[in-house]
Design brief:
The chain has 139 residues and is of the alpha+beta class. Helix content is 17%, strand content 35%.
Length: 139
């Protein structure tokens, strides 16, 4: 009989552990986070282009920054600019300072506008998400 009581107590404790795990684990489950950029843009030198990045699975807010990164043919990746998700605190690389604008227009769209395009602007451009104070891109 003592054995039965101990076994019952064990199962009750295990149920509490399982319930606790469910309570603590479920809030950590994330929806799918996606950053979507439309297809290619073709422009001539001197033109302006506005690149867009639509996000889903999270909200652009003060928590997240969107960075823009360029990959020029035959070269590595180069960081160009970032902006906080609530359209505050833009920062630019020297290579585009004065002829670019980063912005967000809502909780789900970010933009990089490049003016007076140069031949060396020919590249693939990426948007990426990171928390404030860190360049640890997670998406």
């Amino acid at each position: 009989q003592t054995y039965s009581v101990h076994l019952l107590m064990f199962f009750l404790k295990m149920q509490l552990v399982v319930i606790s795990l469910i309570i603590f684990v479920l809030p950590c489950v994330r929806t799918d986070i996606v950053l979507t950029q439309p297809g290619s843009e073709i422009r001539k030198p001197g033109d302006t282009v506005k690149l867009s990045c639509q996000v889903s699975g999270f909200t652009l807010s003060y928590t997240w920054y969107i960075s823009w990164i360029q990959q020029t043919p035959g070269k590595g990746l180069e960081w160009l600019a970032y902006i906080r998700g609530d359209n505050q605190y833009p920062s630019y690389a020297q290579s585009i300072q004065g002829r670019s604008l980063v912005s967000t227009d809502s909780s789900s769209n970010a933009y990089l506008e490049l003016k007076t395009l140069k031949p060396e602007d020919t590249a693939v451009y990426y948007c990426a998400r990171h928390p404030g104070g860190s360049y640890n891109f997670d998406y």
